[in-house]
Amino acid sequence: MTEGSPRKGGKCEIIKRDPWEGMVDRTFMERVGLENLTEKLDDAMRRGKILKDGSKSFVSLVAMEGREVVVKGYHHLGWVHSLRHTFQGSRAKRAWKTANHLCGLGVTTPRPLAYIDEYRGFLLWKSYFIYEYVSGPSLQDFLEDSAVPEKQKHRRIEQVIEVLSHLSEHGLSHGDLKHTNMICNGDAVVFIDLDALRQTFPIGFLKRHRYEKDKARFLRDVRLFER
Predict the structure, then answer these.
(1) Which residues pair with 49 in a beta bridge?
(2) I want to staple 48 with a disulfide (CB 3.0 to 4.6 A). Which of 62, 102, 128, 182 is the partner?
(3) Angle subtended at Cα 207 by Cα 206 and Cα 213, rounded to the nearest 5 degrees
């Protein structure tokens, strides 16, 4: 890797500036600048509103040039972990690809803005996924809200099942259907935290099996709210 500025790649800019590599939406890049996406990113996350501080990731709501975005930073978890992701690709890069793929399929998910990989020598050390902030209550809070009419709750449940069926048709399984991973924004249910999304086997009955498993997992939690 060498020092340098972003290079054009379609609607995105390719970042290659030692020790960082990645991809960023061009319009977003022009607004916030390269420095805010690399050397200043950790500081911005610490100053932001912390949404999660876990052993594997750190998530913060950050204001960047007047725009609210969510930055998910994936921690370094040891040499073996870093070596594996150096060859397999970072979780941030996979999240970026997944989000773009879902947007292409018409699935409501926050607009992906960038992924940034930070290296130490040849070894991937940390990575960051940046996406637009979507306001609204989680599906969990929405379903638990006694002020929300039951008809609206059932419609949101139907929307999630429709998305799961749509994903299955395209050979995808969500894999992590916690209701906190869905945001009720206006009339839409927005899917966030897509790390567990996986390609399923192309064989029909196996795709159906994964769909039924995702659906059952989702409805199990719904029944908990209905008690």
Answers:
(1) 61
(2) 62
(3) 90
Residue 58 β-bridge partners? 53, 73
Contact yes or no for 1/19 (Cβ under 8 A)? yes
7: nearest Cα among 20, 24, 19: 24
- Residue type, position 77, single letter: L
Q: Which domains does the chain have, with CATH numbers?
A: 7-132 (3.30.200.20), 139-226 (1.10.510.10)
Count CB atoms within 10 A of the CB of residue 110.
22
What would the 3-class secondary structure string for 42-107 be?
HHHHHHCEEEEECCCEEEEEEEECCEEEEEEEECCCCHHHHHHHHHHCCHHHHHHHHHHHHHHHCC
Task: Report CA Rg, the chain.
Answer: 19
Helices and strands: H and E segment counts in the chain: 8, 12
Please, which residues bridge with residue 72 across strands? 59, 129
- CA 20, CA 13: separation in Å to the nearest integer? 13
Q: What is the bridge-based pairing of β-strands 112-120 and 12-17?
A: unpaired
**Residue that has been written with the tokens 């030692």 in this structure:** 18
pLDDT (0 to 100) of residue 2? 34
Q: Which two tokens stand for residue 97?
A: 């690809």
10: phi > 0 → left, psi -120 to 50 → alpha, else beta; which?
Answer: left
Instruction: Say whether pLDDT at 86 is over 90.
Output: no
pLDDT, tens digit (0-9, with 9 covering 90-100), for 44-71: 999 999 999 988 889 999 999 888 999 9
